[in-house]
Amino acid sequence: MNDIYHDRAKCWCSRLSKLMKERNYTQKTFLKEYKEKYGGGTQANISRWLRVGSKIENGKTIGFPTYETMLNLADFFDVSVGYLTGETDYELFEMEKACEFLGLEEDGVKAIKGITSGDSVDFFGKHMADEYKSVLRYILTASSFTDFIKEAKEYVENVYRQKHPISHMHRAAAKIEKDVLELAYQCMDYQCISDDKHGVIDDFKENNVEPTEELLEAIKLLNVAQDYDYDEEQSREQRVKLSEYELQKIYFEIIKELVKEEHLPDMTILMYDMEQ
Known about the structure:
This protein is mainly alpha-helical.
């Protein structure tokens, strides 16, 4: 039980302090607005609220404020008491339900709310909230939107593979003895051939390297791996370009559907000809 109390107290202090910091409150400025809204509170109260669970001089532990005060603090910061005490990681229980229903993280739901309320769009966005809601609605319900999401995921995967490729050279090198590997790297371009025009070309002999069976096998492994790496590099680059093209194509399909004639009134603040 003591561990649970300690964890809740620690969470309370951390989250209350975080909320004050996010809103640029000092204890003094916070107290001023809190008193204006709820008609009570002192500097000493705030100090205690921020040190719940701490030991004081007489050996006692600072307890939680009254439940009424906890409700006031939660209301002041527009969060739930459960968020302050660590019962939930969501600021509001409504947010928790929305996240569970939509299968999104809190930042995703907040982003949607910011658009539908107009708050995150521009300074006067709240006056056009209905229009922004309609824009988002027609984008999400566009017949090509799920294709856009699917293609976006594929594009991300292709970019990831391009930036974090699997190296066949490293895999091949791991199969070769260390005392052979360095020499095999040096001899990857060596040739030992003969023809009527050029006669015998023996890079091994010319460089005083004995072409043992182990060395030749190591060179073969490295050369094959190098070819694989080159081919896959070209393939990865091509896949990224293709994904970009497909993504852009679907994007313009969504835009085309967005501006269908029947959609326009919902997304536009209508203007009227005053002379008519």
